[in-house]
Design goal:
Low-confidence stretches: 14-31, 49-55, 57-68, 576-589
Structural class: alpha+beta
Helix content: 25-40%
Shape: globular
Strand content: 15-25%
Number of strands: 21
Number of domains: 3
CATH superfamily of the largest domain: Hemocyanin, C-terminal domain
CATH class of the largest domain: Mainly Beta
Largest sheet: 7 strands, mixed
CATH topology of the largest domain: Immunoglobulin-like
């Protein structure tokens, strides 16, 4: 018997291939569950060739329609989005279509029923919408959670490699089926290194980072009737951490930290030409020239209607007023206080603001008044090259979560977003001694060890291959492989020596952060300057016995990273996700997480100075009472939370660096993170180096 996993794989291969004639037949038990799923997702851009479609009977569905007939009402708005176009969660009309299709798929009680429903509508709905909704349902339905979703890199390879490269490889394979050479995606994929910004192209265009962003928006959807715990706060925190990592990478290249957009009236300095196509028909993503001026959007081909820059400015002004006034108004005019110290562990102000800024109309306290600032900003930039559809151009790459992180302006936009949230965070009081300290626990020493070398981590280039033929039809059976060169590092361990002077065991949360030591000018940074560069590396709970405790923690168990992308071929072979600790398995939310190979910043060939900060806090204060439903994979709980459960840390995300530093502790002035750590036994800092060795990195 095939597993549920094999059934799901079929859903993710060939999503756009239509029937070859006649009507669709549904599972009879003769075909394996695996093949049922794979058939839906293989060679996605092969369209239907005629015939009719049978909708499965039962649950109110029993309609038989021709391929040119009107879709059944059960699909709702799902057919409103044209096939062959981009599907974007940033566009409200697209979210409405997604909700209809997800509700249709959610009727399935098992893989067989889901396969039937998917077969019935796959040639009636937009291809990317189809994959999104299948993924959404598989992640969320308890009956399907023992299976994995294959990597989006293989499902939609055209989002990761240029059509020119794909077509050339396809032609060569057709001429020589025995060819085994992969398509090499080089570091000058979208532009030469003449422009300083292009030095970071390898980072922005990394397959893992973009896959993470696609998956994150899948597990934290907007207007899909999903109530994720602390969703607004995690929207703020994940993107803030993403910016911190980008800034560390920029400093590794002696570039200034990213500058925010100053508003929506100034020209966008950096253009972007993704070199990607929406599908293998050759329809290109929209491009943006340097110094493009944003304009009001006036186009209805995407269900957009009119989007005014003035409206965005008004929404921003109202939200900023709420921050400075200390309250936000709901639709009834009630004032809701904004504070990160709510009574009885109520909803924090950062969470309320995140819901209003992103924005989710179902979660925002007053959607008509505070608007849809984040999503509209993405749309405004993504159509800046053709705001009125005069040139019939497609949306730009920043309009799709799977490609938006490739665009340099994504980071300038989110720096603008983060500065709003920091305006709120700096209104909060500094943490006091009781919140920062942990009596009876002392961190004696910390360090990192990689290949037997202490406190000197090495990064360099590595390669990973994926199969493009899983998602594209090249007219042959030979595999088309993509070879990506990406930043990577050897695994390393954290070593901690801790004294527990208490008479009994103590459960503690270990919080590990990393930040560069020097700024762009080579100066040591103050607490406030360094505060937004501290990136969370790991967070875990451990039990300290009385006396000395020596802890060793592998970088592979990080609370922010996910296991490597899982391919169709690996799933077909029955690969199980076994890496990570048992705690990680319990927190599993498959697929969401920062790529493990991008855990460390690049560093410099001569070595770059970083600081490691470790803080222990009382787990009795940190813990959140809840039931964890186990899943068969690890995940990035710090970035992705726990599906259907509460976020497993009661502290504000980013603690203790989410607020300004105390001006004085125990009579000592605090101006740096090192001075803060020196005042508490449960904190310690250590200087380390990260050295970039290029192609000399030893493969793990």
């Amino acid at each position: 018997m095939a597993t549920e996993q094999s059934q799901v794989l079929e859903l993710f291969e060939k999503p756009f291939r239509g029937p070859s004639g006649g009507s669709i037949s549904f599972p009879t038990g003769m075909a394996t569950e695996q093949s049922q799923v794979l058939e839906l997702f293989e060679k996605p851009f092969r369209g239907p060739s005629g015939g009719s479609i049978s909708f499965p009977t039962g649950e109110g569905i029993g309609t038989r329609i021709g391929t040119g007939a009107r879709p059944p009402p059960e699909l709702g708005y799902a057919t409103s989005l044209q096939r062959g176009r981009v599907f974007s969660v940033f566009i409200r009309a697209h979210r409405r279509a997604a909700r209809s299709l997800c509700e249709y798929f959610m009727r399935a009680r098992n893989i067989g029923e889901l396969t039937s429903l998917a077969n019935a509508c796959r040639n009636l709905v937009n291809e990317q919408l189809f994959i999104y909704c299948l993924s959404f349902v598989i992640i969320r339905k308890p009956e399907l959670r023992r299976v994995r979703i294959p990597t989006v890199v293989e499902t939609f390879p055209s989002k990761f490699a240029s059509q020119e490269m794909l077509q050339q490889a396809g032609n060569e394979i057709n001429r020589n089926p025995a060819r085994t050479e992969p398509i090499v995606i080089n570091q000058e994929f979208s532009g030469t290194l003449i422009k300083p910004e292009h030095r970071l192209s390898y980072w922005r265009e990394d397959y893992g980072i973009n896959s993470h962003h696609w998956h994150w928006h899948l597990v934290f959807p907007v207007e899909m009737d999903i109530r994720r715990d602390r969703k607004g706060e995690i929207f703020y925190y994940m993107h803030q951490q993403m910016l911190a990592r980008y800034d560390m990478e920029r400093l590794s290249h002696s570039l200034n930290r990213v500058l925010p957009l100053t508003g929506f009236r100034e020209p966008i300095v950096d253009g972007y030409f993704s070199k990607l196509t929406v599908n293998n028909s050759g329809r290109a993503w929209g491009t943006r020239q340097d110094n493009t001026t944003l304009k009001d959007i006036r186009r209805d081909d995407f269900g957009l209607g009119f989007i005014s820059i003035s409206d965005l400015e008004l929404y921003y002004s109202r939200l900023l007023d709420a921050v400075h006034q200390g309250f936000i108004q709901d639709r009834q005019g009630n004032r809701i206080p904004l504070t990160d110290d709510p009574p009885n562990r109520g909803k924090r102000g950062i969470d309320i603001l995140g819901d209003a800024f992103e924005a989710d109309a179902e979660l925002s306290v007053n959607y008509p008044f505070y608007g849809d600032l984040h999503n509209f900003a993405h749309v405004l930039i993504s159509f800046s090259h053709d705001p009125d559809f005069a040139h019939r151009e497609e949306v730009g790459a920043i309009g799709d979560p799977a490609t938006s992180m490739r665009d340099p302006t994504f980071y300038r936009l989110h720096k603008f977003v983060d500065e709003f949230f920091q305006e709120y965070k700096l209104q909060q009081r500094p943490y006091n001694n009781e919140e920062l300290g942990l009596p009876g626990v002392r961190v004696v020493r910390i360090g990192v060890l990689q290949d037997g070398v202490p406190n000197n981590l090495r990064t360099g280039w590595n390669q990973r291959e994926f199969e493009a033929g899983r998602g594209l039809d090249f007219g042959g059976s030979a595999p088309i492989r993509l070879r990506f060169t990406h930043l990577d590092h050897r695994p390393f361990d954290y070593h901690l020596q801790i004294m527990n002077t208490l008479p009994a065991e103590k459960d503690v949360t270990v919080r590990i952060f990393l930040a560069p030591t020097l700024d762009e000018r080579g100066n040591r940074m103050s607490f406030m300057d360094q505060r937004l560069l501290w990136t969370e590396m790991d967070k875990f709970v451990t039990k300290l016995t009385p006396g000395e405790n020596k802890l060793v923690r592998s970088s592979r168990d990080s609370s922010i990273t996910a296991p490597p992308e899982i391919t169709f071929r690996e799933l077909e072979a029955g690969r199980e996700i076994t890496s990570g600790t048992q705690a990680g398995v319990e927190f599993g939310q498959c697929g969401c997480g920062w790529p493990r190979h991008m855990l460390l910043p690049r560093g410099m060939p001569q070595g770059m100075d970083f600081q490691l900060f470790v803080m222990l806090t009382d787990h009795a204060v940190d813990k959140v009472e809840q039931v964890i439903r186990g899943r068969p994979c690890t995940n990035a709980v710090s970035y992705c939370g726990i599906l259907d459960s509460k976020f497993p840390d009661a502290r504000p995300m980013g603690f203790p660096f989410d607020r300004r530093n105390p001006a004085m502790i125990n009579g000592n002035v605090i101006q740096t993170a090192g001075e803060l750590a020196a005042q508490f036994d449960n904190m310690v800092m250590e200087d380390i180096k990260i050295t970039f060795v290029g192609n000399q990195l030893q493969r793990a």
